Amino acid sequence: MQPLRILKFFSNIFLLSLTMAATVFAYTEDRSTYNATYHDATSTGFQLKGGAGDPAVGRSTSTNYILDNGLVIEFGVMTITVATSVNFGVLTPLIPSQVTSSVVVDMVGALNGYNITIKRDSATSTMDQNAGSPPDNPFPDATDWNSSGSGNGATTPGNNLSFRVMQAGTNSNYDSTWWGASDASGTAKYAGFPVSMQQIMNCSTCNFGSTDTIIGYRASPPVTQQSGDYSGTITITALVNP
Hints:
Helices cover 2% and strands 32% of the residues. It has one helix spanning 176-179; strands at residues 17-19, 26-28, 41-42, 46-49, 59-62, 66-68, 72-74, 79-82, 97-107, 114-120, 128-129, 161-165, 198-203, 209-219, 230-231, 234-240. The strands form five sheets. Strands 1-16-10-13 form a four-stranded mixed β-sheet, with no helix packed on it. The protein starts with 16 loop residues before the first strand and ends with a strand.
């Protein structure tokens, strides 16, 4: 009996549906702000801090009074950039294939960084065969990712669709408890796309600038999977930590 070969598998897999996190911050704290230049002006009877030559007065003091207005800085909108599609190309049963894509977040100002969440957009399966193929033929998913505690990632996800955060290329925050000590086979942990939003990365120190989180997508078709084109969508969100 000849082995099953899937001639064409996954055309334009994961048309990523992006949920943009657009947040404007107002941060108020005396003499503590980011990327601000202070110019202090003093005299014998009066002291002005944070106001001379700057757009706002921070704290004004004298022998008889203290005027504390704080310092308010308005930040712009943070942005998230994700690839519009991820394509596995042609797959062969029982042979895992992995592709990666980046989630780039440009943070313009935050106190406690941000986190990334993910979910699949179908309650039944992440991917199904496209129109023109036999209906109701989903591609199997690994166990839904749950971020509670140490997470439920597995080093042997099986013959299905799964994902993980990659250590290589991730400069936001790689959580080895969730995703394994490294990207090496047998150590790297994988999980299935969850039905509801679950965190996959949390970086409390990512307060300014651009940071990358690399997601690895793994597909290993079982021998019973029918040949054809499969596709599906997921939602990735970046949210500011409270």
